[in-house]
Amino acid sequence: MNIVLLGAPGAGKGTQAAFIQNKYGLTHIATGDIFRANIKGGTPIGKLAKSYIDAGKLVPDEVTCEIVKDRLVNGEVGKGFMLDGFPRNVFQAEELDKFAKVDLCVNIDVDKALLMDRICGRRMCSCGATYHVSTLNGATTCAKCGQPLYQRADDNPETVGARLDTYEAQTAPVANYYRAQGKLFTVDGGSGTPEQVFAAIESELDKYLK
Ligand code: AP5
Ligand code: MG
Question: pTM score > 0.90 for this model?
């Protein structure tokens, strides 16, 4: 099973990817994580991506599509893949259809008013765990591995505003692309806990697998 996780910044793509990976063993490919690893490593891709990410804009399609294509065509995906943060515009969705088969697009729908608080309150761990300050009770280290928590460089109000505008203009139309193919499943990601959101996704994925 190959799925695309679609949703605005802060919708919960990374949070749900962890649940899905745990239950279904799909290979998680997150373009944002790939860019951040390149920025940390000081690679040419990282140097190029940084200026776009800091401005809340999309990294150019030719760079992003090539990274995903290389990963899917030349890498191992085992039971299937789960793309988080790709495709992010209709051009990327069309390109993806040329080199891989998407079975389902899970669109995590969250009211825009909630997103700024979710992102600016997010704390990350380098082990991959994600938290929100409202549930940390002042803790500054990861409950899973004990490492210090940090905030992403693009999680400040100004950049988040630009990321939300980019989402509205370029990424939201991707839902229609998959709706037209009969592959869209939209889940309410704004009114339940992460576990409740996953329960709704799980029942759809189980239905698909039957
Ligand atoms: P990327 O890393 O993909 O970031 P994003 O899309 O902005 O999404 P986030 O990772 O911020 O949010 P999320 O949906 O994963 O939410 P999370 O689960 O963490 O991309 C970053 C940048 O890279 C882009 O801006 C762009 O520049 C570039 N880029 C990446 N892909 C690209 C592409 N394809 N083309 C071009 N450029 C690209 O949750 C958020 C918070 O909410 C957490 O604190 C979490 O604990 C909390 N939370 C989650 N679920 C719930 C819930 N149900 N209830 C309450 N709180 C919740
Ligand atoms: Mg994410």
Answer: yes
